[in-house]
Amino acid sequence: MFIEPNLGLPDIHGNGGTGWIEVICGSMFSGKTEELIRRLNRAYIAKQKVEIFKPSTDKRYHESDVVSHNQQTIRSTPVQFASDILLLAGDCQVVGIDEAQFFDAEITRVVNTLANSGKRVVLAGLDMDYTGKPFYPMTELMAIADFVTKTHAICVKCGSIAAYSFRLTKSEEQVLLGEKDVYEARCRKCFNQGMKPTKTRL
User: Fold this and answer.
1) How many domains is the chain partitioned into structurally?
2) Is the preceding peptide bond at 5 cis, omega within 30 degrees of 0?
3) Which residue range is the domain that position 32 belongs to?
4) Residue 81 sits in a domain of what CATH number?
5) Angle CA(168)–CA(103)–CA(44) in degrees, nearest 5?
6) pLDDT tens digits, one per residue of 12-58
7) Residues annotated as catalytic (active site), given as ranges
8) Per-residue DSSP letter, 176
């Protein structure tokens, strides 16, 4: 079994092997989807059966494909409910899930069921919302994962490592789809400075 040198992840899943869960988390613009696509493309090269899913509500770049901010793309199946993934995964060996934070609470049970059946599950999602609080259900998914990779962006204000998604609009909805017109990647200091005028953080 090949071991990924930088991440310590076994990315070749043999037939009949145990399943596992890989979570790729981080802020907006940190390369989560890019890393998801990279791992899934390697599974394709290994001639594994791969199925990829994303929330049907996410149509920012493409109606069905998973597309990263730098325009890398991979085919996927949009689904409305997490339970739909169980119905559509079939006999594949590897399941990819993008924007996991947008799925309903069933996603944790679904991912566990897939891994327990011997599948490798690779998912990506935001670990914190625009207020800097943990983003459910990513909190549960990170807890049950066998491997967790946290990606980082670059702070647009000072150039430091960024782990926060700062919202530029006044909307207070937790889920608000958007790109650079709505969000900025910021470091802890610049995020907190931006939050001070309107919100008090714990």
Assistant:
1) 1
2) no
3) 20-152
4) 3.40.50.300
5) 100
6) 554 457 899 999 999 999 999 999 999 999 999 999 999 999 988 86
7) 99
8) -
